[in-house]
Amino acid sequence: MKKMLKNRLFMLSFVADMVSNFGDVLYYLAMMNYVLLLPDTKLALSMITLSETLPILAGLFIGMWADQTKNKLDTIVGTLVVRVLFYGIVGLVMGFSPALWIVAVVCIINLLSDIAGQYESYLFMPVSLRVIPNEDREAASAFRQGIGAILRIVFQSSGAVLIGVMTYQQLAFFNAGTFLVSLLITLSIRPALKKLLADNPLKQEVKKEGSRNLLSNMKQNFLASYQAVQGIPVLKAVILVLTALNALFVALTPLMILSIKEMPNFVIFNGATTIAAVSITYLVGSILGSLLTTSLFKEMTITRLTKWVIYVPVLLFVSFYFRFVYGVFACMFVTAILAGVMNPKINALIYRALPENQLATIAAGITTFVQLGMVVMQGVMSVLIVLCAARSIAMIFFLLSLALLVYTIRNVASIVEE
């Protein structure tokens, strides 16, 4: 951690990222409260959810676009300028009386802003290779994850306070201000970053002749990404397992709510506290995992962690089936700790093993692949909730977890990390 704190460029870029994240959290909380003012709350909520989901589906294209962008530093600055302007427009729109058309306009702006934010993150990926030495990348990722989780709790708490004392128009302008601060910080470190890039220029992907078609480019880049991942057995195996795990954990919150409804005793104190404790438990576990990454689990391999975490969903859905609420939270906490350890190790592996000129494309492809599993399972879960009782759903997911356990033991156990 001391190395991270002493690295001025890393810390300033981290602060800039966290300030803009505060703006995102504040916006989301504000809009969740704003829709309650409208008569058609369900439609407004659906529009917001859609605007938050679409950038996930565009991730592969955005990553490819970032890899092919030549002047990455100036483009990063440009994305922040655009986001300041976007939320300035939201501030003007929020001056009108609450209406569904305002939600529609804000959702479109939020969609474009999220795409710009994704683009900015992917642009910075190869630049960050010059900021953090190879041997410190795992620690840097753990630091970002742990401190980021702590700050997210702070952001949510302070956001709730600001919503109580500010108008929605003021909140929108405040949000624009967070991106302005992030822009100013980025401009302050831009000369130092330019010097790093001058000493160690970025490797630029060269476009091949005859590949001007967008779909053709995406196909070629996707195949190249697939081949790159194929060359790293541990990454390939872990991505498949994590995709399945993320899909399984989609059932967690709906199953929790359904269990509380069917069995009022399936609570800790009361229903509201139990539901709130879900996110708190995960954040605390993630923070602890991040702290343990560079100490207790420093020498632990990704494959061994994968073999540990794969038992947890089996126990989780057994706890749901027998309606043992404390068992559910214990499993969630252990999962959060192990995920908090695994994520920095996987990020370090990606930065270390994948070609720099395709780093954003491959990372976007991995993220899209993992999240698509969640999207599919959300659809399945929405059907199961209508057709089945909580214990039946728990049994279905227990069997799926058991199948994943068998698959992991047979396919990941033999992989040796370099």
Automatic annotation (TrEMBL):
SUPFAM superfamilies: MFS general substrate transporter
Signal peptide (from-to): none
Membrane topology category: Multi-pass membrane protein
Gene Ontology cellular component terms for the protein in this record: plasma membrane
Keywords: Cell membrane, Membrane, Transmembrane, Transmembrane helix
Gene Ontology MF terms: transmembrane transporter activity
Full protein name: MFS transporter
